[in-house]
Amino acid sequence: MASTSASSVRRLIEKPSASIIVNVPTSDSGMATTGIRTERRDPRNAKMTSVTMTSVFGSFAYVAGSLKTPMLYQKPLYFASLMVGAGDADGSVGGAVNSTAETVRAALHAVGVHPRARLVSSVFIMALQDATQGHHGLMAFADCAVVIEPNAMQMADIAIATAESTRVLMDTEPVVALLSFSTKGSGRGPMVDKVVEAMEIVRARSPELNADGELQADAAVDLVVGKSKAPGSKVAGRANTLVFPSLESANIGYKLVERLGGAMAIGPFLQGLAKPANDLSRGCSAEDIFNVAVVTALQSETD
Known about the structure:
The protein has helices spanning 2-13, 50-57, 69-72, 76-86, 100-110, 152-170, 190-205, 217-221, 223-229, 247-261, 286-300; strands spanning 19-22, 37-39, 91-94, 121-127, 138-142, 176-179, 211-215, 241-243, 264-271, 277-279.
């Protein structure tokens, strides 16, 4: 696992440099920053230009009137997101002392949704102990942090967005499995119907994408089981990108793989924003901050 993760990070930091605002509570994170330029600015001592304030704050004038715009930028999360939205930084990393909801809210308000995106969701890159799984031991899990109970359309959006994240972050073609407790009609019910409908939407919107569903998790990642349960599937047993039917199942799934399987969970990374702005888990380590910062730099090159 360690060598896989290290080589992945090494590949990321060899990319051209980017300016990333890292919003962490300490004065010195202790991170190496080879390949990227991080900036630390205190929002209490900084001033936003009138052009920045007008262009960025004008994009979320719908926010409740109780929100005091002139003082909002002094909140570290908003300050970092405003710099990204205004083009003064290529990306931001926050959430070390904030919830995911607060981090996403700041990014939505100040950075906004990408014109081609319908939804903001998240993805974890899992560095597994077993290098034969996924792409040399790397797999994408979504959505583990943002969309609680996606409907069929939203699940399809998440699948398409996560496929692109697999291309960018793992440097490989996505093999996407839409997960369920059923494989090819082995189970019935509304939850299965949702995944089946989501798969139909993916096929209609991205017919070139190598995706399949509904698949159980074992059928998605184990070749023997995949051939038995879904014969003829080009995804079964080969998936490197797993799309879960709910945040509940995704969050439980990635934490079990991390804690019981010894995997490293890198992320979550937000998908669907106009520019990169990513979230950290509270209580994150310096290595966690570094991993998210270098991936944010890589995301900034693809916008």
